[in-house]
Design goal:
Layout: H1 12-21, H2 25-28, H3 44-55, H4 57-65
Length: 66
């Protein structure tokens, strides 16, 4: 089963370390996390728009096809 790490971050490696260190009670329950897909965007609005798409049924289908 794949665990998707959603979110917008300027430092994805730091965010991944935080998730895997158990700092957050929610992410702690689903460890270990890993990054398998990443995109760069010019601004927050575009990144958020893409994140919303990837959380949709069509976006999840796209990610599973990778």
């Amino acid at each position: 089963m794949l665990k998707f790490m959603w979110g917008i971050s300027e430092n994805p490696e730091r965010r991944l370390k935080e998730h895997n260190s158990g700092k957050n009670w929610y992410t702690k329950a689903f460890m270990p996390w890993r990054i398998f897909y990443m995109e760069s965007h010019i601004d927050y609005a575009e990144a958020r728009k893409r994140e919303k798409y990837l959380k949709s049924a069509a976006g999840k289908k796209f990610l599973r096809s990778i």
